[in-house]
Specification:
The complex is a heterodimer of chains A (112) and B (116). With 112 residues, chain A is mainly β. Chain A is 0% helix and 49% strand. The model of chain A has no long low-confidence stretch (mean pLDDT 93). In chain B, a hairpin with an 8-residue loop joins strand 10 and strand 11. The chains are: A mainly beta (112), B mainly beta (116).
Chain lengths: 112, 116
């Protein structure tokens, strides 16, 4: 069984530029999560999807962040424009209606 | 709001010895789930072990076991016969019961070094 796939693994951009991250969850997993992990911290949830519906986006900075999960499978997280403080690792996870979340390898974003 | 605290930022252990990682949490729920995740330099979070709060028996997975003290809200991880591959960041995490918020609440993590 393939795990959660994320791309790119690394991204370096200048501030004020846009950036997008892609996630492909484990096949059949209906719940998808995006977490942000700042240096020296544990991950924090940005948004959770149940199929196509965003059911918890309370921690998503909506002025510059957006996400979508078309057809309830792949998901894209976008930042526009990026700020220096957005430098972090962005983790995607998926689960199948239970409490066990499987994580992808993450995208390390550096904003200069 | 639920919080998870890992008070030890770093620990080291000699290969083949035993080490215990501590974690405390705060919640008003009576039923919930607790997890230990391992994050090697590759960054992928790997589930090590999980514990359901309603179970009195401590979870065990091969060399990994937990000491779950519900009244004290303590959830420590014991690694026996430590191996070089155990070196990583370890995160304790809390999840609300089914039907509530499904997000994981993580501690700040602890860096484990295994010395040969």
């Amino acid at each position: 069984e393939a795990g959660v796939v994320q791309s790119p693994r690394y991204k370096i951009i200048e501030k004020k530029q846009p950036v997008a991250f892609w996630c492909n969850p484990i096949s059949g997993h209906n719940t998808l999560y995006w977490y942000r992990q700042n240096l020296g911290q544990g991950p924090e949830l940005l948004i959770r999807y149940e199929n196509e519906e965003a059911v918890d986006d309370s921690q998503l900075p909506k002025d510059r962040f957006s996400a979508e999960r078309l057809k309830g499978v792949d998901s894209t997280l976008k930042i526009q424009p990026a700020e220096l403080g957005d430098s972090a690792v962005y983790l995607c996870a998926s689960s199948l209606q239970n409490y066990e979340q499987y994580f992808g390898p993450g995208t390390r974003l550096t904003v200069t | 709001a639920q919080t998870v605290t890992q008070s030890q930022p770093e620990m080291s252990v000699q290969e083949a010895e035993t080490v215990t990682l501590s974690c405390t949490y705060d919640t008003s729920e009576s039923d919930y789930y607790l997890f230990w995740y391992k994050q090697p330099p590759s960054r992928q979070m790997i589930l090590v072990i999980r514990q359901e709060a309603y179970k009195q028996q401590n979870a065990t997975e091969n060399r990994f076991s937990v000491n779950f003290q519900k009244a004290a809200k303590s959830f420590s991880l014991k690694i026996s016969d430590s191996q070089l591959g155990d070196a990583a960041m370890y995160f304790c995490a809390y999840r609300a019961p089914q039907g509530g918020s499904e997000k994981l609440v993580f501690g700040k993590g602890m860096k484990l070094t295994v010395n040969p």
